[in-house]
Amino acid sequence: MTEFRGAVAVVTGAGSGIGHGVATALAARGARVVAVDLDPPAEPGIHTVTADVTSADDVRRVFAAADDLGGPDLLVNAAGIAVASPLLEHTEDDWDRVLAVNLKGSFLCLREAARTMTARRKGCVVNVSSIVSIIASPTPEIAYDASKGGVSQLTRSAAAELGPHGVRVNAVAPGPVPTALYGTPTGAVPGNIPLGRLGTVEDIVAPILFLCSSAAAWITGHVLVVDGGRVLR
Amino acid sequence: MRGLRGRVAVVTGGGRGIGAAVCRRLAEEGAAVAVLDLDAKPAEQVAGTLPEAGAYAADVGDPAQVEDVVRRVLARHGRIDILVPCAGVMRGAPVTEMTDRAWTEVLTSHLTGSFTAVRAVTPAMIAQRHGRIVLISSIAARGIADHVNYGTAKAGIAGMTRSLALELGPRGITVNAVAPGFIATRMTREGAERRGRTWEEHAERAAEGTALRRIGTPEDVAAVVAFLASADAGYVTGQVIHVSGDP
Is residue B2 situated within a structural domain? Predict the structure, then answer.
């Protein structure tokens, strides 16, 4: 449980859900975690920064904190929001907010992390995409789906560009996981998940940690779908 | 790193290259490994260095031989948790010159050989309600000139992965694949010879073609196979993971 000992990890969206799970799991494995959220968790051993990932100034402040700890070795972009409403009811403001947090926020953090990572010729970024970047969402949330499509391609393009500088960029694309963002599902487990159950935060955290680890040293630009087989249906 | 303690793995093509690295990695993680190879000697060499491992000579092109090995593994260990069919050959030629034999050898070893091994181990996995199948595709599934047999077989593996994941998911079995890029193995060394290049020249060209600017090692692939075989990948199924140093 010491695989990430000494590594400095910036985790956005660390206040809840998958981001929170990643932050605590990395800390438990020896990483020095900079946990970023509008409302970050107060937990022992975790360095928290209150910041809005849509603000370039805030993001610079986050990475200044990471640089003070020795520079970011890992970045996990888990901050995300969704607006669930039909396309005809999606407001311009809905669209702008969702794209700003999910896509622009990922870009700003990636860019800031890449400054240090490319200079040190090492680093690893994991973005949180979604299976709705691949299949149509069963519930209308057009801005969220489009933002996650953007995150997947951001991942591939950044991987191609940063690879020669020693920096890997990958993503996970989770399927349905009950979190504050996803909501608590009611009723039976959907029959369209081959593994027969909804995912858990732990189901998603473990593959993110794998992508951060030396076991994934020759993987870059990959969007790893973690969905119990949902996209196959 | 003992996450596979108590698990039993069957690896075909385990005597060399990626297969041998997979055997070593799974054993490092605590699994008992059955090393299958066409040739007894390399299988014995790999198994001889690993605790609880056994060597089995078998031709994956002959279902009866594979089934016989599976029976012996079950008799010895009582279960099979992990299957990684790595056996396969490469017989490149322009399509106009590709012989029936070159086509059949490649399709039989990679595609039919994987199917045969899956069919042989699946009843035990279903009975246990636990199984991890990791197939070996390739980035050549996207297309590869002068190797229509290999490109077809590896694309077939990707399709096999998805179909089996759908079918076996409800039985507690995950099915995934890795798609390696250019790995330093006997197979790629032969590729250098065929093109009249030195190995260094051949490998350097391949490295330049990747974002991470290096060729892969069998260990790079084995580490990803071990992840897919582990509890950490419990909610991953039907996926083909590119292990190629490149998007």
Answer: no
Residues B107 and B174 in one domain: yes
What pLDDT, in 10s, does the model give residues A161-189? 999 999 999 999 999 898 777 666 655 67
In whole angstroms, what is the distance from residue B138 CA to residue B155 CA?
Answer: 8
- Output the domain CATH number for residue A187: 3.40.50.720
How far B165 CA sits from the closest chain A CA (Å)? 7
Could you tell me if B47 and B72 lie in one domain? yes
Task: Quote the ipTM score.
Answer: 0.95
Strands in B173-180's sheet, in edge-to-edge order, are: B54-57, B32-37, B8-12, B82-85, B131-136, B173-180, B240-243
Q: Of B43, B46, B139, B150, which residue is the catalytic one?
A: B150
Tell me what pLDDT residue A41 has: 77
pTM flag (> 0.90): yes
Q: Give whole-number Cα distances, A222 to A82, A155, A168, A216, in Å.
A: 23, 8, 10, 10
Predicted confidence (pLDDT) per residue in B114-155, tens digit: 999 999 999 999 999 999 999 999 999 999 999 999 999 999
Print the domain residue range for A145.
8-232
A189 touches B at CB < 8 Å: no
Which one-letter amino acid corresponds to residue A196? G
